[in-house]
Write a structure and sequence with these properties.
The chain contains 18 helices and twelve strands. With about 375 residues, it is an alpha/beta fold. The strands form two sheets. It has a nine-stranded mixed sheet, with helices on both faces. Strands 10-12-11 form a three-stranded antiparallel sheet. Helix 1 crosses helix 6, helix 8 packs parallel to helix 9 and helix 11 packs across helix 12.
Length: about 375
Amino acid sequence: MDAEQLCAIALTQVKPFHLVGLSQLYRELGSASMIIESRFHLKELVPDIQKRLTDSLSDVSEAMKRAEIELEFAKRYGIQVLTLADPNYPQRLRECDDAPLVLYHKGNADLNARRIINIVGTRRCTAYGKDMIRRFIADLRTLCPQVLIVSGLAYGIDICAHREALANGFDTVGVLAHGLDDLYPAAHRETAAQMVHHGGLLTEFPTQTQPIPQNFVQRNRIVAGLSDACILVESAAKGGGLITARISRSYNREVFAFPGHVGHTASAGCNNLIRDNGAGLITCAQDFVDAMGWNDEVMLAKKQQQGIERNLFPHLSSTEQTIVNVLKENNDLQINMLSAQSNISVARLTAALFELEMKGVVKMLAGGTYHLLM
């Protein structure tokens, strides 16, 4: 068994569980293995550690047994166990203070894709909401085809977003409020099965976890943290979609909302959010792509068609030069590995890599790998 995975899972099983405290401790010591190994000397290593945290780590025997069972289950059913130390762990989410210590992923999605959005909203969506999603995703496929679409696999807006993503050839990930030994709601099993081959299912919860209400609120932070932008389609004055939008803003993510009919219950949340400057107003995919500055694929294609030659000695910013230096050492890196080796956030990398593509310095290959051309 992988020791780091085992220790990371065990940390999520200690009682009582303190995510923020353990996350801070993890960042201080660098690994779950180090936390477990040093559990009797944590006060010496981290003087300001809270006593309740050291008390909870005093006996991890049961937590380790539970972790072994969980890891065996994951291996048996082809589930990826992603710890904070894993290069495949979502880089965007890792930057959040309350990032999960462990994620369980079943599927083939690149959780560090160049562009990731979430589409959320009410479980009681209307024909208007469904039509907005259908048109948005269909147009997005033409404007910006390389996007990973995330939602929560719930009734209403969530499942509509997943199904339209699949229909238009996008990978899509559902973030669950329970373990991967079950699926809620059961009515979405067929869609979930398709998603495993064209995206995936993701959760921080171990097996035998029931989908209780508080878990849905907790999983919303993962939906928000994974993404570059949150798109609220329909929402009542209160609801889970608004929670995801609020968390997204706290993570400095972009938030957008479709306006709806004045006075209609399903549009109140979106209209209020737009009115209070909590979300940018969009009416179509073009609005969103323009706001995000994601027209680069079209722009790049046009410049290539115009036959613009690459400057043999292009001027590079300090960030761009750092990327070039990393690729000189290890060429053909995916963005998550490039982020780890350059110590540049994925958000900054995305913008810098586009500039380097425009300058003819790098090229993105199949699978999101970047190749240095200089």
